[in-house]
Amino acid sequence: MRYIEFKEIECAVSELCITAAYDLPADVLASMKKYRKEESSERAKMFLDQCLQNAAIAADERLPLCQDTGVAVYFVELGEDVKIRGGTIYDAINSGTARGYHESYLRKSIVDDPLFGRKNTGDNTPAVIHLEIVSGEQLKITLAPKGGGSENMSQIKMLTPQAGRAGVIDFVVKSIIEAGGNPCPPVIVGIGIGGSFEKAAYLAKKALLREVGSINPDPNYAELENEILKRVNATQVGPQGLGGDTTALAVHIEHFPCHIASLPTAVNLNCHAARHATVTL
Predict the structure, then answer these.
(1) CATH code of the domain covering residue 228
(2) Which residues does residue 139 pair with via DSSP β-bridges, in sequence order?
(3) How many alpha carbons lie under 13 Å from residue 93 in its C-beta half-sphere?
(4) Are the beta carbons of 37 and 121 closer than 8 angstroms?
(5) 173-183: per-residue pLDDT in tens?
(6) What's the pLDDT band for 202 if we cut at 50, 70, 90?
(7) Which of 106, 125, 145 is the last residue of a domain?
């Protein structure tokens, strides 16, 4: 059994909040630069240049990439041989989130009740925490802040099996067209296929954590990702929704077994500031 102190987790999470808010991951930057070279629209090139300049300023001056520093969404892998000393993993993450958002002057965007009152909690908690128990003695925490613009464009559809591959493609492309410039494209498209209603949504969000442009290990899904990416970029929604070849930087799919009568399909989008950061303790 390995013990990890509550305070160690709190400090690590606080630092994650800062890193995720300030530093655009290298894979996202590399992908944006690649598409900038291939873009045919001068206006789209200008917007891509601004996105890259924004990322450089944020990193150099230690400022948020976007004023919407988002819902703090955590993907946590807790080793079965790890015990948290001094409190629960949930309390440690929430405490670290409150500290990180307060000390770094990140915008607090969480309201206490979704419908009545909607009073700001003042510290961006409670966080959304997805906890998975894994083997070993390590604790891995990934923070993926989600802004309202991209999150509000999420969609899920309980397709039936007869919809098949074509139905999945049509649903995803339609979602992108309907989203337009709202999610601040170029986007990264996360797709969850299978499981149940809530599992598909979880998979779509988790898919956004993959390295941008990485190839799906399943050849069928790798080919499907490639086709959807081509179809999405053919929509000409373009950067900021104002036209161009670069609507999406990548399409990532996660899948899971499902009921014989179902084909749940979810779409979750990351804006061009596709923020995430990971720490392993």
Answers:
(1) 3.30.1330
(2) 78
(3) 22
(4) no
(5) 999 999 999 99
(6) very high
(7) 145
